[in-house]
Amino acid sequence: MNVRRPHISAVALAAVTALGIGTLSACSSDGAAAGNTDKFDVVASFYPMAYLAEQIGGEHVHVTSLTQPGQEPHDLEISAKQTAQLEESDAALYLKGLQPTVDEAIGQSPVKTKIDAATLTSLEEHGTEAGGHEDEHGEDGHGEDGHAEDEHGHEHTHEGGQDPHIWLDPVKYAEVAEGVGKAFEKADPDHAADYRKNTAALVGTLTDLDKKFETGLADRKTDVFITTHAAFGYLAERYGLTEEAISGLDPESEPSGARVKELQQMAKADGVTTVFYETLVSDRTAKTLAGDAGLETDVLDPLEGITDASRGDDYVQVMEANLKALQTALGAK
Prior knowledge:
The protein has 10 helices and 11 strands. It has 333 residues and is α/β, with parallel strands linked by helices.
């Protein structure tokens, strides 16, 4: 759709022409690069943002993801080709604080509509423990330093120590969807009615998902679950659970003896049965801890990307699989 900036360099033009990176087929045509279509061209930072753009934009958008399927989003380094993508797009949809190189690239790009999902809902601070029965702002669940590092040594925080994993709470994700819908309406007013309709449908789907989690986890034996990735703080708070995460560890490193002992004691006291790992990083930490503590392992997917290993083809299907995994681990009826 974007034909407003004809003075693109020859190098950038060649890069754009060659692009087929991370294109999402649902709203894309023949792998065309962002900016070279007759649709509203949206560059999304990673899967949860691309999913919103596809669902809300429908047939009117061409969505391209900067993060390829199976790529750990925190490791993303923006290429020259992707910089060219941004320059020729109508909109960029991202989550500031999750991918520093994306934040920098979008900040420097001339794209007219920049949508930061972190501004569309409230963010909170989460440490290695999050959730439980604290107040609605989660103030009692903060870690001492207000942040946690993932297995890659990256801090999983927004500015000020805030947790960016808002998409794992269907209610917060719906709030973001509403903001994205309004931004699309403003940027592409010719299709505003369809964007409003699609946004309402998506919010309805997410509301139904929230109800499934609420009822599905209502009658459970324990509130505590263990993860290797501190991504589920918002989900834990939403449904009265407590996430205990093993943070600050490289995927190839062993958990410390002190942490294993602490989690082993906690697991016994709270009836924990399972250590969760995810699809895009090594399961070694989870299996080491589980073996030492006599626990099971299973996948709890933070939905940072969809791959062949994912338990579903899209956000809703994988979240429903996460619910089933939590129900089993927590002894929910």
